[in-house]
Amino acid sequence: MATRSAQHGPADGAGQDAQASVHEGSPEAVVVRFAGDSGDGMQLTGGQFTLSTALAGNDLATFPDFPAEIRAPQGTLFGVSAFQINFGSSEITTAGDAPDVLVAMNPAALKTNVQALKPGGLVIADTGEFNKRNLEKARYEASPLDDGSLARWDVLAFDISALTLEAVKPFGLGNKEALRCKNMWTLGLALWMFDRDRRPLVDWLSAKFAKSPVLAQANIAALNAGHAYGETAELAGPLRKLHVDPVASEPGLYRTITGAEAVSLGLVAGAQLAGLPMFFGGYPITPASAILHHLVKMKEFGVTTFQAEDEIAAICAAIGASYAGQLGVTSSSGPGIALKGEAMGLAIMTELPLIIVNSQRGGPSTGLPTKTEQSDLYQAVYGRNGDAPLPVIAARSPADAFECAVEACRIAVAYMTPVILLTDGYIGNASEPWKVPDPASFTPFPVAFLEENNNPGGKVLPFRRDARGVRPWIKAGTPGLMHRIGGIEKAIDTGNIDYAPDVHQAQTDARKARIDGIAHNVPPQEVALGEARGKLAVVGWGSTFGPIHQAVRRARRKGFDVSHVHVRHVWPLPANLCELLSGFGQVLVPEMNTGQFKTVLRDQFLIDAVPLAKTSGQPFAIAEIEAAIATFFDGIPGNEGGEVAVNETQLPAPEIDQP
Amino acid sequence: MNDMTPIQTTLKDWETDQEVRWCPGCGDYAILKAVQRTLPMVGADPKNTVFVSGIGCSSRFPYYIESYGFHTIHGRAPAFATGIKLANPDLDVWLVTGDGDGMSIGGNHTMHILRRNLDCQIMLFNNEIYGLTKGQYSPTSRVGTPSPTSPIGSVDRPALPCAFALGAGARFVARGYDVSKDLPEVLIAAYRHKGAAFIEIFQNCIVYNKDRFDDFTAKAVAADNQIMCKDGEPLLFAKQTKGLSLDLETLSLKVVDVLDGDWQAAGVAVHNPRNRGLAHMLVEMPFGAFPMALGVIYDDPAPTFESAVIAERASLIAGKTADLGKLLSKGQTWTVPEPGDAHGLMD
Description:
The structure holds two protein chains of two kinds.
Chain A: E1 3-5, E2 29-37, H1 42-55, E3 59-65, E4 80-88, E5 101-104, H2 107-113, E6 122-126, H3 132-137, E7 154-158, H4 160-168, H5 175-179, H6 182-193, H7 199-208, H8 213-232, E8 252-258, H9 259-274, E9 278-282, H10 289-296, E10 303-307, H11 311-323, E11 327-332, H12 334-350, E12 354-360, H13 377-382, E13 392-394, H14 400-415, E14 418-424, H15 425-429, E15 431-435, E16 484-486, H16 501-517, E17 534-541, H17 545-557, E18 562-567, E19 569-571, H18 577-581, E20 584-591, H19 596-605, E21 609-613, H20 622-630, E22 642-643, H21 654-657
Parallel strand pairs in A: 2-5, 5-6, 6-7, 9-10, 9-11, 11-12, 12-14, 13-14, 17-18, 17-20, 20-21, 21-22
Antiparallel strand pairs in A: 1-7, 2-4, 3-4, 8-15, 13-19
Chain B: H1 27-41, E1 49-53, E2 68-71, H2 77-87, E3 92-98, H3 99-105, H4 107-116, E4 120-126, H5 161-167, E5 172-177, H6 183-192, E6 196-202, H7 214-217, H8 219-225, E7 226-229, E8 236-237, E9 242-247, E10 252-257, H9 276-284, E11 292-299, H10 305-317, H11 324-328, E12 333-336
Parallel strand pairs in B: 1-2, 1-3, 3-4, 4-6, 5-6, 7-11
Antiparallel strand pairs in B: 5-11, 8-9, 9-10
Helix pairs in contact in B: 1-6, 2-4, 3-4
């Protein structure tokens, strides 16, 4: 039943890293990519494999990559949905560059993903789907399983469809429903390959299909059959059981978490620490909707969710709630954030706390709804009419998004300001293990509303500032403190309409000074890896953390004098950042945009930051950043930094593009 | 409105120390006074009252009422009001908007606050012109309105705010005009209505659209050209000499003559503000052939948005406790033991 072509391709040139081929007995890290039709349940398969990986104690990072269409036409190239996981026994910070194993559920999945596979990597393909029709849809003239075009890799092809149908036969499902169990069969095989316990999956399936036990049993049977296939089929060569040792993690309680979950939990925790109910106004948009979905289930924490009629209403309602004394939050992606711009200006003008979460995606306009980019930094920092400063925080990973959300809440209420929290599609959807924090370890930042007149004998002064330039928060409904606020320029202290020249000058200065002052109330910038001074600093923000970190680690192993600095507070920048960066000969800024943070750094510090730009909708590969770092150490003048070439494969891995 | 103990206040208590900045003679002054007269009559409490507005001449209103007030951005007042009311349902929320703010840039939000039925009073000042931007035609301007952006007269067909409101699902629709002595009565009814109460107030912009509504507000013609709708009373006008009757053949209203006050003989309909069909006919009667319908045209309460949100939340959280530690460790977890401990356990 199994066919196999074991001609090895050229030797892997990028073998110095932690990732190892599946041929080794106990590799330090393995990258597996599941790819199939968008109806094949690949995200679910990947998600469950992730859970089993976490339960096995490996560190991991994932990259779900799916098309914008909910159900693209079956078998097409653009309908391929993929899920990549990198797991291992040492620290994992990226979803990995090139997969070691590719599970391809149909020809289209093979075609769009195989180029990314490491030479010598393993392809597992379902021959049941490699029929004439599907081959044509994937634009293959002949089956790649037979024509030798996959010679660079190990190929294991067998009829997963038929094997699944056989396994679920006793349950009397229709053909279509029976074939839906294919992903569980495949997962069963993967669990066997990596020596995983099936029990959690069986429990999960039983719970998921509690209302239809037959489906639960059929899926469990498929899972078991896939596992048994690995165990009993006498397969030589590539299919071999591998055990990846658990990572040595800090002791404690762990779970897996996606960025969207982490943001939701962080917002809830932040509101609790502030002692406030939370009001979340949202309007569905990919990939930000997940946050609204999560928060709807957390209403016992004083959360009110409001699905507004549009993005504008979502933020306006949140600002209204802040005026009435709750912590207003809204969330969206670039196009929706653009619509919210005017309302953000009002929150800045009226000095009300507000959190705006932007799960960035590729732009401009509708752009790439399901792909990732960091191209909304200018929008966050500069993108409003008037001089309208507000703090901007960027999360670097799914787990980090929790702390960032708490931090956003803290700054919003401490400084009476809207705060933008930047994540992106990659962070939002990807998952990683998270050490569950103990709520008792958090420092509360309870809000003190103004309840007594701050101007005895006169009218309350809603815009009387404290030493930090912060006005009091007065809850609408407080006796004796009635006042009016609005978007028109206002007099000092009273807040009455006043747009005299000196008043606007003074208020503009006050708004700027208050936000600038936040730089002194955030943790000093630290170096994520390497020395605090040296030849090259690779400076990143947001979800580039993983690839930058690994690239710098590899470069340091080669002896290069390079450090990694990762900035969470992108506006205002931490007070010590300028001094820190001036301790380096050069600064390289890898970003998934055309160089926006580079511009901010140049503007703020007058330093010659060099951009490394990438806008393919895909995260950086480690090798791309490694290659850029190397240009600083190759002795060729003027060769430093540069752009990343556009890759045609879904997850680019340049080292295999040059055999 | 809210079920709260009435508070004793006077008109003076609702005046702020701010200089009112509308043009001398603007209809807004009369509306402001009517509102300031109404608030003591209904026992409103300044600390629990919030006036929310968008942008435009009318939207300066909150600065002149001694309560909480939020002058927001163009067209979005309904969204702010929704957040305020959901955050604190005890607050009495009034919206002040205009034909541009509420029917043009904010038309979408007007629709949604009405269909959701948020408990609030929405006063739409309709002067059929853009005042603050210096006289361009508005979405309620009649065809042929000359303006800086329509030199030979506007070509767009106007929107009917009350018909729009009913179409959006409003449960309370009323009409009045700035200098009308009946305006407080309409505002009181709106205040007492639990849910979104929509009041179109014709307002005279003396600079850009002067006397636009004279053909039914001027003293000489008012009696003949306006009809005040009152619950349970016949729909009579022109000093009881004319009435509105239902034409059964066309299923529409028609004007009938009433002889010697015998409106029943003339077949005049009795106003029923719970009759949605009648409300539609009253707000859409073409002026000229028909009088302008004023007063409480439709008033049929339904459950409010905020009460539904509160009930939904109660049912979602029933039996749940807010345990942050539990929330954070939800789902499948595993423990990495202290070095020397037994192997990691799956929880």
